[in-house]
Design a protein that fits this description.
single chain, alpha+beta, 1 helix, binds zinc ion
Length: about 70
Amino acid sequence: MTEQEYTICNGCGNQVKTGGAPPYAEGLSVTKTWGYFSGKDGERHRFFLCEECYDRLTKTFAVPVEIEEETELL
Ligand SMILES: [Zn+2]
């Protein structure tokens, strides 16, 4: 679990304390393997955004993020 305590945010370059392995509880970690017809055939893209950068990104969306209340939070 101590393998990767901190992760660099791709948006702002700040270190974010994440702890453990992806998917992290804090911030947004994305791993995307592009398909054959995408023009990025077979490429795997990976990035991490801290909460601030996530908020900044999602504010630019034409359609807002869907939000549901998680009922089983610790
Ligand atoms: Zn950031």
